[in-house]
TrEMBL record:
Domain S1-like: 22-96
InterPro entries noted in UniProt: NA-bd_OB-fold (IPR012340), RNA-binding_domain_S1_IF1 (IPR006196), TIF_eIF-1A (IPR001253), TIF_eIF-1A_CS (IPR018104)
Function description: Seems to be required for maximal rate of protein biosynthesis. Enhances ribosome dissociation into subunits and stabilizes the binding of the initiator Met-tRNA(I) to 40 S ribosomal subunits.
Name of this chain's protein: Eukaryotic translation initiation factor 4C
Annotated region described as Disordered, given as residue ranges: 1-25
One family name in Pfam for this protein: eIF-1a
Membership in a protein family: Belongs to the eIF-1A family.
GO MF term set: RNA binding; translation initiation factor activity
Biased composition (Basic residues): 1-15
Compositional bias annotation for Basic and acidic residues: 16-25
Keyword terms of this UniProt record: Initiation factor, Protein biosynthesis
Length: 97
């Protein structure tokens, strides 16, 4: 049988419990950004969100947050609007309660 040459398994990929439970500075929206509430998760790193301006957008979770920050339906998020696609946006930040 060959030796395992990896550096660990599933638990190593999960990492240590580095949850952002401590107080962090509140980040407000800038131009080109909007607040939104997640309506439903679609899979493949995407979700459907209702923005404050009343538009329903298809949002893509950025790679930095993917599998690190868990987003569920009902969460408040900050999305970056696309200037070339009005019905799509990118999730920049998830607000904690």
């Amino acid at each position: 049988m060959p030796k395992n040459k990896g550096k660990g398994g599933k638990n190593r990929k999960r990492g240590k419990n580095e949850a952002d439970d401590e107080k962090r500075e509140l980040i407000f929206k800038e131009d080109g950004q909007e607040y939104a509430q997640v309506l439903r998760m679609l899979g493949n790193g995407r979700c459907e969100a209702m923005c404050i301006d009343g538009t329903k957008r298809l949002c893509h979770i950025r790679g930095k947050m993917h599998k690190k920050v868990w987003i569920a339906a009902g969460d408040i998020i900050l999305v970056g609007l696309r200037d070339y696609q009005d019905d799509k946006a990118d999730v920049i930040l998830k607000y904690m309660p």
